[in-house]
């Protein structure tokens, strides 16, 4: 057997850390060394699933955390264009605010390659009462206390899979 054939037979180790978002259950899992380490209730798009520009839908497929924003920002910090405004959001309200921390996703599949340009994030929200149901404008929302912990655990480059 030649060397190339032998390489194909070698098992592929899972990445040391990954995130898996399951839209149907509105859950996200932190997977460490192939095992579920933590589980989070989340909120995906109220407009459904898709990768179309301007659709406000949550994309499916394989992604990577391309960039992180929010080091040491107080919980509830409002971000606009990934910059803290200096304001702290009150819970509730109709506006879909990006709060506390941002994990900016980049798509790895041809279908979701526009994800970074669509500004699809994992972030905190002022609408924590809607966590557990589709309610976002395409992003993956988390409770503010939980995104702080997750942000500190996952480095840029962490793989993310979003499945129906």
Describe this structure in words.
This protein has 164 residues and is mostly beta strands. It contains two helices and ten strands. The chain has helices at residues 3-9, 144-153, and strands spanning 17-22, 27-32, 35-41, 61-69, 77-80, 83-88, 98-107, 121-124, 140-142, 159-163. Strands 1, 2, 3, 4, 5, 6, 7, 8, 9 and 10 form a ten-stranded mixed beta sheet that branches. The longest helix has 10 residues, at 144-153. 32% of the residues are buried.
SS field, number of helical segments: 2
| Radius of gyration, taken over Cα atoms and rounded to an integer in Å | 17 Å
Helix content: 10-25%
Biggest β-sheet description: 10 strands, mixed
Helix-strand topology string: HEEEEEEEEEHE
* Count of β-strands: 10
Unreliable segments (pLDDT under 50, ≥5 consecutive)?
none
Mean pLDDT: 93
Give the N-terminus to C-terminus distance in angstroms.
40 Å
Class from secondary-structure proportions = mainly beta
Strand content: 35-45%
Tertiary shape: globular
Oligomeric state:
single chain
Features:
mainly beta; ten-stranded mixed sheet; 2 helices; 164 residues; globular
């Amino acid at each position: 057997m030649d060397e190339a054939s032998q390489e194909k037979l070698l098992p592929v180790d899972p990445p040391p850390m990954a995130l898996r978002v399951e839209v149907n259950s509105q859950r996200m899992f932190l997977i460490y060394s192939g095992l579920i380490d933590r589980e989070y209730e989340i909120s995906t798009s109220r407009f459904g699933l898709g990768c179309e520009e301007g659709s406000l839908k949550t994309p499916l497929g394989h992604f990577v955390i391309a960039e992180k924003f929010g080091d040491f920002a107080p919980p509830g910090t409002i971000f606009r264009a990934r910059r803290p405004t200096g304001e702290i959001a009150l819970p509730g309200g109709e506006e879909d605010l990006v709060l506390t921390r941002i994990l900016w996703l980049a798509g790895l599949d041809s279908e979701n390659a526009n994800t970074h340009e669509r500004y699809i994030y994992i972030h905190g929200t002022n609408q924590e009462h809607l966590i557990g149901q589709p309610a976002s404008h395409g992003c993956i929302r988390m409770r503010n206390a939980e995104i702080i912990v997750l942000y500190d655990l996952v480095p840029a480059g962490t793989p993310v899979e979003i499945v129906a």
